[in-house]
Design a protein that fits this description.
Number of helices: 7
CATH superfamily: Nucleoside phosphorylase domain
Shape: globular
Number of strands: 14
CATH class: Alpha Beta
Largest sheet: 5 strands, mixed, barrel
CATH architecture: 3-Layer(aba) Sandwich
Radius of gyration: 18 Å
Length: about 270
């Protein structure tokens, strides 16, 4: 009987026998440039038109991939990564729009929870947020996916030892701050102060982006620990596009710096 149960577990589409490798994801090239440059013995493998690079990063075996922008792209790449490489954990490195008014471009958010801000019912009265469902069990997923607590603590610890790229402002340079918080995901680039106020009020969000919750859901349903790290390129307000053009390279570099340290921390 035990052999039969083990066989069923291993054949389940929702179980993964993890390997001693970390998956590292980013949405678009600037988010991955620093990590790619630091990889040792990189080897590319293309699966279903997605390029995965295996090698070592900061002494750790990793598989690196660019998801593309948006929830569907992120879910596809994450699923392929899990299926083919069986990572022990997945860490995302990227930029985001700031929602917390205390945060500025260049600052970093270590995700403690990740949620969708565009999944639910939209009416004249506003947004009603729904929880997604596991398509196999039909059970509701959490409305807020919890990032792995051990990975969160690693990120907090190593962030205190790192030197991040400073932000050039008209009044001089400033060093980025690092905080933990809720990251919310939707298939829209937010550039509205009205929307950011809603995201704070409804979801207590610190930052908004376009991939994290899809990665979180894929990992949650496959029992893979995950962490979403974001550095702010803008404040998701009416100046978001201009600020993103100005700060996204620094933001991407700072996120990658933290991710690389987390990956290398034993």
């Amino acid at each position: 009987m035990k052999k039969i149960l083990l066989s069923l577990l291993l054949s389940s589409p929702f179980s993964v026998i993890a390997q001693d490798v970390t998956g590292v994801l980013g949405a678009f090239p600037p988010e991955l440039v620093l990590l790619q440059k630091k990889m040792e013995n990189p080897k590319d493998t293309v699966i279903s038109n997605v390029r995965f690079t295996t090698g070592k990063l900061n002494g750790r075996a990793v598989v690196l991939a660019q998801t593309g922008v948006g929830k569907v792209n992120a879910a596809i790449t994450t699923t392929i990564l899990i299926e083919h490489f069986k990572p022990r954990e997945i860490v995302f490195s990227g930029i985001a729009g700031g929602v917390d008014p205390a945060l500025s471009p260049g600052d970093l958010v270590i995700g403690t929870q990740v949620s969708y801000h565009d999944f639910g019912a939209l009416s004249d009265n506003g947004m009603t947020y729904w929880a997604t469902k596991n398509p196999f069990t039909q059970k509701e997923n959490p409305a807020f996916f919890l990032c792995d607590s051990a990975l969160v603590q690693k990120a907090i610890t190593v962030s205190k030892t790192l030197q991040f790229t400073k932000i050039n402002l008209e009044k001089g340079n400033r060093s980025p701050t690092v905080k933990t918080g809720i990251i919310v995901t939707g298939d829209v680039f937010v550039s509205s102060q009205i929307v950011t106020k809603r995201l704070i009020k409804d979801l207590n969000a610190a930052a908004t982006e376009m991939e994290g919750a899809a990665i979180a859901q894929a990992c949650y349903q496959r029992n893979i620990p995950f962490l979403i790290i974001r550095s702010l390129s803008d404040k998701a307000n009416q100046k978001a596009k201009a600020d993103m053009d100005k700060f996204y390279e620094i933001a991407a570099e700072n996120a990658a710096t933290l991710v690389m340290a987390v990956v290398g921390e034993k």
